[in-house]
Design goal:
single chain; 313 residues; alpha/beta; Purple Acid Phosphatase, chain A, domain 2; six-stranded mixed sheet; 32% helix; 20% strand; binds fe (ii) ion
């Protein structure tokens, strides 16, 4: 099975109209290269706007991927809280996050893409975490968006997987569909990397005050506990987004791919890149596809054996 992974397309017809044709181009490229399944790990929209959600859905329908066997998605913080787009918005945004009805926003997201979740195994009637099995591959989808908190999540961008959600991960990890899969993939929005990984990946780094703010507002709380739960569940690979670059790293032996540079990279010169994961053989093959900014073409970069990302067979 060939899986294309990308993240954070931030569809926003009002302020980022260029993102829609870019997403279409990346998806068309992936389908042309034989992707059987596509994973988009959150921030499908930039402002949690209903019109943008419907437009994104229409694009999926047009490309014939609006089905659970073709597409797996999870929400990102922008799909729930939205984001500031103008200077005035920045001042008002913390108050917007404080009063945001996250459950209602999540319900709108789920409703808009309802068919994609129709095959999912869930527990207690909750949409997340969910389990989905496609041939020899199992996916566990997690909603890593944290509730607002003045100190822990002032602008909605920090992540969390609560104790009860971690318990569901463990329960789904004991499910036959997960246990008997040859490859077990976790999909979530927030990242598991630390600062050292960022340096090694050559990711765009913020400096000084910007770095401090970023460190406080772009993180996943309780990473160590989360990693332990994934490890106990026997996960092979984590696909995520959130920080806008394409990169690969490993945490506690768990391979992780950040796919958020496909449509809206932090540095435009990094170009538009997404992952292609080939699980047709016993040892998986992961490559990075670079989509040309100007021409309708793409190039492929195979990750060499020094890359510390290798899914357990
Ligand atoms: Fe994002």
């Amino acid at each position: 099975m060939r899986i294309a992974h990308l993240s954070d397309p931030h569809i926003n017809l009002k302020y980022h109209p260029q993102h829609l044709p870019r997403l279409r181009r990346v998806l068309e490229d992936a389908l042309k290269r034989g992707a059987d399944h596509i994973v988009i790990s959150g921030d499908l929209t930039s402002n949690a706007d209903h019109r943008d959600l419907r437009t994104t859905r229409r694009l999926f329908e047009m490309l014939g991927i609006m089905s659970p066997s073709k597409l797996t998605i999870v929400p990102g913080n922008h799909d729930i809280y939205g984001g500031p787009h103008l200077a005035d918005d920045i001042l008002a945004f913390p108050e917007h996050c404080r009063t945001c009805n996250t459950q209602e926003q999540l319900a709108v997201f789920q409703e808009n893409f309802a068919e994609l979740f129709s095959d999912s195994i869930t527990i207690g009637g909750l949409p997340y975490p969910f389990l989905k099995r496609l041939k020899h591959v199992a996916f566990m989808g997690i909603n890593s968006i944290a509730e607002h908190s003045l100190t822990g999540n002032p602008v909605g961008s920090n992540g969390e997987i609560t104790k009860s959600e971690r318990k569901i991960v463990t329960q789904l990890g004991n499910n036959h569909a997960w246990q008997t899969a040859q490859f077990r993939i976790v999909v979530m929005h927030h990242h598991l990397f630390g600062r050292k990984d960022l340096v090694r990946m050559g990711a765009p780094a913020a400096r000084g005050l910007a770095s401090m703010i970023e460190h406080r507002t772009l993180k996943l709380h309780g990473k160590r506990r989360i990693l332990r739960v994934f490890e106990e569940a026997g996960a092979d690979l984590v696909l995520h987004g959130h920080v806008h670059f394409t990169g690969q790293y490993e945490r506690n032996g768990l391979a992780c791919l950040n796919g958020a540079g496909a449509v809206y990279p932090a540095r435009r010169e990094d170009g538009f890149s997404y992952h292609m994961i080939d699980l047709g053989v016993r040892t998986p093959n992961i490559s990075v596809i670079h989509v040309s900014k100007t021409k309708r073409e793409s190039t492929i970069e195979l990750l060499d054996s020094n890359t510390p990302v290798m899914v357990a067979a």
